Amino acid sequence: MAEPEFYARVSARAGVPVETARALTEATLRTLAERVSGGEADDLSAHVAHELRPLLARARVEDPEVFGYDEFLRRVAERSGATPSDAERGARAVLQALHRVVGPAQFNRALSQLPREIAELAQPTPRPA
């Protein structure tokens, strides 16, 4: 998926303008790269548009940082300049779009390194009836 299409998908899923989706995407991918192993971040980066790959790059640090859901969202909000609710919606949208790009097997390997609450952001939200 090309970079503009990825941002458009995040924008539509999160209900935010494309520029906000860009900031949320960058913040979420950088934070995700900190939370998974360097090898896993490299594996994920191989599936995204060339322009997004540096966001998942780690300075050859194999061990992930250890932090939970609240810190994950705090980092996304701080990096993107978003409100906490926009950061949560944005992170959800980015992870769901990333899942489509990466595919289930590779994505589930990455999710297995995350706390349950962060991994659940990648799950589709039920639509109201």
UniProtKB/TrEMBL annotation:
<protein>
    <submittedName>
        <fullName>DUF2267 domain-containing protein</fullName>
    </submittedName>
</protein>
<dbReference type="InterPro" id="IPR038282">
    <property type="entry name" value="DUF2267_sf"/>
</dbReference>
<dbReference type="InterPro" id="IPR018727">
    <property type="entry name" value="DUF2267"/>
</dbReference>
<dbReference type="Pfam" id="PF10025">
    <property type="entry name" value="DUF2267"/>
</dbReference>
